[in-house]
């Protein structure tokens, strides 16, 4: 009997108590489940939303996404709701305040990268804005993964996006981090076939 995408991906998909099928990573805890159901792979085009997502992806590097989601309210409080204009004006005192804030990830390079990203976001308004830049790298490639192993970790477009953001003044935005961003903000659809967000 031929295998269906769901049986091929059985180890990568989980049926939740609510009867919905999700990738295993999204079923690890309620925080990730809600994030997957409500946010992940949904289009984000507004400036503040994109600046927040890029900043959180920067902080996530080397850590679990669950850790970042748990600290998200604290990040929003510490970084003025990710208002680029406010964060762009952060100075040395703000950096020291953030380094003393145990509720967030206290990494000086990532904090400084977030401030630099805010400054770059404001500067990009003169040439169309952050959203226009990010979404200009939306790929034509359509993904239809049945297993997590079929999902790439980077792409030519994520490499180009990372380079363009670095040229604009962003830091710590590599091609792997940017592919994760592209998935999260709906630029690419890597929902597994069989999941409730991508039925078989």
Outline the structure in words.
With 200 residues, the protein is mainly alpha-helical. The protein has a domain at 47-184: Endonuclease III, domain 1 (Orthogonal Bundle), CATH 1.10.340.30. The protein has helices at 5-8, 30-38, 47-60, 65-78, 84-88, 92-99, 108-124, 130-135, 156-168, 175-184; strands spanning 13-15, 21-23. It has a two-stranded antiparallel ribbon. The longest helix has 17 residues, at 108-124. It is globular.
Question: What's the CATH C level of the domain at 47-184?
Answer: Mainly Alpha
Specify the helix fraction band.
40-55%
Spatial extent as radius of gyration: 18 Å
Biggest sheet character = 2 strands, antiparallel
What gap, in angstroms, lies between the N and C termini? 17 Å
Q: What is the H-and-E element order? A: HEEHHHHHHHHH
CATH homology superfamily of the domain at 47-184: Hypothetical protein, domain 2
Class from helix and strand fractions: mainly alpha
Low-confidence stretches: 1-9
As for the CATH topology of the domain at 47-184, it is Endonuclease III, domain 1
Strand segment count: 2
Counting DSSP H or I runs of 4 or more residues, the number of helices is 10
CATH architecture field of the domain at 47-184: Orthogonal Bundle
Strand percent estimate: under 5%
The overall average pLDDT, rounded, is: 94
Strand line-up in the sheet with most strands? 1-2
What is the approximate shape? Answer: globular
GO molecular function, one term: DNA-3-methyladenine glycosylase activity
Pfam families: Adenine_glyco (PF03352)
Organism: Rarobacter faecitabidus
Protein name: DNA-3-methyladenine glycosylase I
């Amino acid at each position: 009997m031929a295998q269906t995408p769901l049986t091929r991906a059985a180890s990568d998909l989980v049926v939740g108590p609510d009867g919905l099928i999700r990738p295993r990573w999204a079923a690890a805890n309620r925080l990730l489940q809600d994030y997957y159901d409500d946010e992940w792979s949904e289009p984000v085009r507004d400036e503040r939303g994109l600046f927040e997502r890029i900043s959180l992806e920067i902080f996530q590097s080397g850590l679990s996404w669950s850790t970042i989601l748990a600290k998200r309210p604290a990040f929003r409080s510490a970084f003025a709701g990710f208002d680029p204009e406010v964060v762009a004006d952060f100075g040395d005192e703000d950096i020291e305040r953030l380094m003393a804030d145990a509720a967030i990830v206290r990494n000086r390079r990532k904090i400084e990268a977030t401030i630099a990203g805010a400054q770059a976001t404001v500067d990009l308004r003169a040439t169309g804005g952050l959203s226009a830049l990010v979404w200009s790298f939306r790929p034509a490639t359509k993904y239809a993964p049945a297993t997590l192993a079929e999902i790439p970790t980077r792409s030519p477009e994520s490499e180009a996006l990372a380079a363009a953001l670095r040229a604009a003044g962003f830091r710590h935005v590599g091609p792997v981090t940017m592919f994760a961003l592209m998935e999260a903000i709906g630029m690419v659809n890597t929902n597994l076939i069989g999941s409730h967000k991508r039925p078989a």
